[in-house]
Specification:
The structure holds two protein chains of two kinds.
Chain A lengths: L12 E10 L2 E11 L2 E6 L6 H8 L7 E6 L14 E4 L11 H11 L5 H11 L15 H13 L5 E5 L7 H16 L3 E6 L2 H7 L2 E6 L2 E6 L1 H7 L5 E7 L2 H9 L4 E7 L2 E6 L2 H14 L4 E6 L4 H10 L2
Parallel strand pairs in A: 3-7, 3-8, 5-6, 6-7
Antiparallel strand pairs in A: 1-2, 1-4, 8-9, 10-12, 10-13, 11-12
Helix pairs in contact in A: 2-3, 2-4, 3-4
Chain B lengths: L2 H11 L2 H21 L5 H38 L3 H5 L5 H35 L6 H24 L3 H19 L8 H9 L7 H11 L6 H25 L6
Chain lengths: 313, 251
């Protein structure tokens, strides 16, 4: 399903009926969407086609059909557009015989950065690699290599960033710092497209998600909006109260309620009309002489939405 | 052409262990010649030197050296997945192709040059002729250019490019080139030897060996450079086409 939100009003990256197949295998099928300023999470289980889509967008792969543009240009046809693009590939993709500083400097030179020395230092600081910048990349851990790749992608100050699983291998402190960095880059008005299968992290950095399943666009838009659009799946609501059994009895005959369960003194209600239910719930509680202590949506999280999209449950 | 790319690819190609291995390969004829200098006349030493250059250096050592280095130019980018880094930079694809061809040619010339200089020094000291290695050096230039033109795109196209390149050398260059009239004209080592045979004097024995290898290929420096020039243009065009039109990462 799509939500109609696969397009943004101010697109920097546009995909039109983009497909890619390898022999008989369809890796990406008829993707139609756009990306604009801010952080967009590209979500999907392994094999969903996220990396293939990023490789198509960055011109590493040739589309089997359809087209794409970044700032109105196809990168394959006009390599100059790469001055405005930063890519952190999922692959190791570093030159192990270089030091981190040399690698980032090389990236700066190839992207025609004016004051390369200053840009290199700024990029190294941005990923907190100051202490290891003069070590050869061959000696780096995976997390450090990821940070060197991020610095290399940022050194020319691009306004479109493609990040393929950029947090792989990073420790929790590094992850938090990188997430803050990506959020900041998005807030500065850059188009940041982050592919990840770690839903919690995407939820922290992305205001919008594009979910892919089996090479297709399964959903697009803000997480809550995607969930709202799943009108055929009842919403789950978690209710803590002074007397869950009494409240459950009161709700059994109430309209808008499609399912009730009690677990560990907590009431779990399913409703196909969550807004109406929200209005009705306080009245039902008052009628049953029950005090509500906490009411939370249970499946507004990205993980729940994603589970619905992938597994349909 | 991009100097930064050439510099980095050269650093990568000329790793110490590889450099030592290939220097030993190209230096082997010089080592053999060194032992042959004892107890032989100047004329014999000159003959040994030329025979070693024709049969070992140009036909075996230089093709293998060029294969290892030139196929690694793109091959290592593919294997280490760094090709993605290079092709997502604002470089025209033909700049990348030309930079790779240049780096591969320079690396082959440098490594092949180690063996040639070693042999040149040994022969020059033994026979007292400082110009004795000139024709081998010209042959090296032609071989470096020609083999780079063949093996650089091979490294981009084929994952097992070293094996494929060996098959090219032994099947196309040795077997088909020797047995099918007309094919020898397109053989790179014969082209290199045609330049070799046209520069300076060659002993009678070496001349016979050279003619045996060349077959119907007429010796000539100009023709040799023209041939590898055409080969390089074709190689550049093809490599650029692949970089523009083909997938540059695996599934």
């Amino acid at each position: 399903m799509t939500t109609g939100a696969q397009h943004v009003t101010d697109p920097t990256v546009q995909l039109a009926s983009l497909s890619k197949w390898f022999g008989q295998k369809v890796a990406v099928s008829d993707i139609e969407c756009s990306f604009g300023p801010g952080v967009t999470g590209l979500l999907g289980p392994n094999g969903a086609g996220k990396t293939t889509l990023l490789r198509l967008m960055t011109g590493v792969l040739v589309p089997s059909s359809g087209s794409l543009s970044i700032h109105g240009e196809n990168p394959r046809a006009n390599p100059d557009i790469y001055c405005r693009i930063g890519l952190v590939p999922e692959d190791e993709a570093v030159y192990n015989h270089l030091t981190a500083r040399q690698f980032i400097r090389w990236s700066a030179d190839l992207t025609h950065v004016g004051d390369a020395a200053i840009a290199v230092e700024r990029a190294i600081r941005a990923v907190a690699l100051e202490n290891a910048a003069d070590r050869r990349l061959a000696t780096f851990s995976k997390g450090m290599r990821q940070r060197a790749k991020v610095a290399s992608a940022l050194v020319h100050d691009p306004d479109v960033l493609f990040l393929d699983e950029p947090l792989n291998g990073a420790d929790p402190v590094q992850r938090a710092a990188l997430i803050d960095l990506f959020v900041r880059l998005g807030a500065e008005g850059r188009t940041v497209i982050v592919s990840s299968h770690v839903l919690g992290e995407v939820e922290r950095m992305a205001g919008r998600v594009i979910a892919m399943v089996d090479g297709r666009l399964a959903a697009a838009g803000p997480v809550a909006a995607i969930r709202d659009a799943m009108s055929d799946i009842p919403r789950k609501i978690r209710i803590e109260s002074t007397d869950p059994r009494a409240l459950a009895t009161a709700l059994l005959t109430a309209p808008f309620v499609t399912g009730i369960a009690i677990e560990a003194n907590v009431l779990h209600v399913q409703s196909a009309e969550p807004v109406q239910f929200a209005y009705m719930l306080p009245e039902a509680a008052r009628a049953a002489a029950v005090r509500l202590t906490r009411v939370d949506p249970e499946d507004d999280s990205l993980e729940s939405v994603f589970r619905y999209l992938v597994d349909g449950r | 052409m991009n100097v930064a790319v050439i510099h980095n690819i050269l650093l990568r190609l000329l790793r110490l262990r590889r450099l030592i291995g290939l220097a030993l390969l190209t230096g082997m004829p010089a080592g053999v010649l060194f032992f042959l200098t004892f107890g032989n006349s100047e004329q014999d030493i000159r003959g040994f030197y030329e025979m070693l250059n024709i049969t070992v250096l140009t036909i075996i050592a230089l093709p293998v050296t060029a294969l290892v280095l030139a196929s690694a130019a793109f091959g290592e980018e593919r294997n280490d997945q760094t090709l993605t880094f290079l092709v997502t930079k604002p470089l025209p694809r033909w700049h990348i192709a030309l930079s790779m061809l240049t780096a591969a040619t320079l690396a082959t010339f440098a490594v092949g040059g180690i063996g040639i200089v070693a042999g040149w020094v040994v022969a020059a000291v033994a026979v007292g002729d400082a110009t004795i290695g000139l024709n081998t050096t010209v042959g090296l230039v032609v071989a470096s250019l020609g083999y780079s033109a063949v093996f650089v795109p091979l490294g981009l196209l084929v994952s097992r490019s070293t094996l494929t390149g060996l098959a090219f050398i032994f099947i196309w260059e040795f077997i088909i080139g020797a047995s099918v009239t007309g094919v020898s004209t397109f053989s790179v080592f014969r082209t290199a030897l045609s330049a070799y045979g046209d520069v300076g004097t060659v002993t009678i024995d070496a001349r016979e060996a050279l003619e045996g290898v060349l077959g119907n290929v007429i010796p000539g420096v100009g023709g040799a450079f023209a041939k590898v020039g055409v080969l390089l243009v074709l190689s550049l065009a093809f490599t650029t086409w692949v970089l523009r039109r083909r997938d540059l990462a695996n599934e």
